[in-house]
Amino acid sequence: MTKKSLVLAALTASSLGLAACGGGTGAGNADGGDGGDGEQATSIKLVAAEYSKDNTKAFWDEFAKKYKEESGYDLEVQIISWDNIDQQSSTMIQNNQAPDILNLNAYASYAKDGLLWSAEDVIPQESQEDILDTFVKYGTYDGKFYGFPDLASARALFYNTELFEKAGINEPPKTWDELRDAAQKITDLGDGNIGYALPLGPEESQGEFSMWLFNNGGMWKDGDSWTINSAENVETLEFLKKLDEDGLTQNNPGRTNRADAFDLFKSGKVGMVVGFSPLAAQLDEDGTVDYEPAPFPTNNGGESQTFGVTDYLMAFKKDGNQDAVKKFYELYYQPDQVNTFIEKEGFLPVTESGVERFSDNEDLKVYLETLPNAQLTPTDDPTWDKVKLAVQQNLGAAMDGDPKDVLDKLQQTAEQQ
Amino acid sequence: MTPRGRRRRRQTGQISSGAAWLWLAPATALILGVVLFPAIQLFRASRGEYSITGLRTGDAGWSNYTAVLNHPSLEVVVRNTVIWVVVVVAATILISLGLAQLLIKQFPGRRIVRWAVIVPWAASLIITSQLFVLLYDYNYGIINHLLKKVGLIETSIDFLGDDRLTLASMIVVGIFVSLPFTTFVFIAGLNAIPGDVMEAARVDGASAWKRYRHVTLPLLRPALMVASVLNVIYVFNSFPIVYTLNDRNPGYAHDTTITFMYKLAFESQEKDVGMSAAAGIGNVLLILVVIAVYMKVVNWQEQTR
């Protein structure tokens, strides 16, 4: 009997322990938040994403000190890695413990759920006017500006100048045909060299694909209707599939994450990859790969488009936190705060004064010129928050299947929401 | 309760129920707080309707459950889970039986070998999994490097990206991390087998295989049972290996029910806490049923003997 009870005990402990780890707990019916009885908050909480180990925490700690000095409010700072922040912020909201300020790469669903302060409530007019129009446009949901940008990035084509030289290519490609030729020549060098590193794995396939489809005159969404399976986009995905089939990309692009593609480029074996300024900073630090950024080639040789990304600092509406939150943004959007953060993290400015301030930085020139006209994914539509996930989990399948079929299904997903 | 009854109880070494509850209070609080409360919360979450942000927007009735059951990938996920658990546990037990047999023998360096077997157990599963991702890597993995060096293959093998190999590659890691615990359970079990039984069998002229089959294995039964039940639970619940090794693959083609549950909450296009909680309830029920069936079968064998 003892062995049976031993097994039983083990079973109970383990299987119920499993229940405890199950997909999230909590059942708070959130309608505003804690606090509640109209009192003024004396302290607010910021949950911020970790852009880099060295700088993110240091900046926000310093910021909290300054904020306390200027406003009298305390700022509690919690830094969370990008791997976990989605999960943790979701859990906080489930448990009715939303922070006052949350730093994330999406905002529209939160605005839709009525959780956020809009700009007219918490952003000083002066700061609102300073934010670049593009970001105001993509930060506006249902006529109100909720998605306050903390920093931005824009993509460019990174090419390995050493490999280009070896393969006898004089210039970065301007059209897709030229890109394919260049990739062919680099692949022909042999020795494991890869023409173009194409990450269509789940980490960020929507980013890679955005860069390509914008440069084929495509869009995710046109006005109010989704255009995921438009002729341009199908052509784009077919072109990428062809690159893979012709052996001009790394192995298995549908299952390569962006980080893996960057690692390959850093190893010096890759001719071209879509990069951004943080990658440039890493490459410069390593100093082992000779590279240059260039505008991304277009399908028909037209003007190059860039894919821009911005992350958000959104403000949760809670009783009594409005003034403290307002003071937070007042300080954050002061040029020496926001731009210091951006500079340290190696990203791009989100304000006009920031663009001016960085304009004499040669390294950033190629991005800054394109930034004001950058195209973003439709982050102002809450549906996109789900479509993005669908793209991440399904786009790679086009490399083994039918591109049109994959895009048709994504279009369907978007229209069903 | 009569005073007489209480006295009699004292005489048999029992204490009053008040004192008993006092002693039991910490354990009870622990069970309530760590087991029961989360379980109730999980069930409540599974009956709720959630926005993608995690905000509860209303009651969902049983619709989260039907959504999980109608999920197009559920079939492949369940099939993966069955293969994963059965193959890992079966292979682990077979290999561990051999290893344990070896490790109870006296030989020089036994202590070192025993330590070596225990090391994978001490390492965090996430670190072990990351290590295997590096070993398996298509571009710079040591395994591919070695195979090419020896001339066995021309081009690299995509252990984690080729659909035919992904599950098998994960199973190898699953077995690797399950071996230490299982082996040491068997070592303890083998040490508990009295020497005179063995000697009697030997005197009766039983061959080595017969001694193993008819003496050792039956006496190892308790150890075998503990090892298999616990391993089924551990392997079934194993999140880090499947999640980490499958990280680059889109979709659910190589997920088990545990990683499926996680993806439903945070990575899938559903991104639905309620659905994920419903899947979590399903996971608990599934493992309870499997264990109940297993114990039934074992008991039945005992009774018919």
Automatic annotation (TrEMBL), chain A:
Database matches in SUPFAM superfamilies: Periplasmic binding protein-like II
Keywords: Signal, Sugar transport, Transport
InterPro entries: Bact_solute-bd_prot1, SBP
Keyword Signal tagged: yes
Signal peptide: 1-19
Origin: domain of life: Bacteria
Record carries keyword Signal: yes
PROSITE patterns: PROKAR_LIPOPROTEIN
PANTHER family xrefs: ABC TRANSPORTER SUBSTRATE-BINDING PROTEIN, ARABINOSE-BINDING PROTEIN-RELATED
Identification of the protein by name: Multiple sugar transport system substrate-binding protein
UniProtKB/TrEMBL annotation, chain B:
Membrane topology listed for this record: Multi-pass membrane protein
Subcellular compartments: Cell membrane
BP-aspect Gene Ontology terms: transmembrane transport
Alphabetical list of InterPro entries matching this protein: MetI-like (IPR000515), MetI-like_sf (IPR035906), UgpAE/MalFG_permease (IPR050809)
Domain ABC transmembrane type-1 stretches: 78-294
Gene Ontology, cellular component aspect: plasma membrane
Top-rank lineage group of the source organism: Bacteria
CDD domains: TM_PBP2
Keywords tagged on the record: Cell membrane, Membrane, Transmembrane, Transmembrane helix, Transport
Transmembrane stretches, start-end: 21-40, 82-103, 115-136, 167-193, 219-243, 273-295
PROSITE patterns attached to this UniProt entry: ABC_TM1
Main location: membrane
Family designation: Belongs to the binding-protein-dependent transport system permease family.
The protein's name in its UniProt record: Carbohydrate ABC transporter membrane protein 1 (CUT1 family)
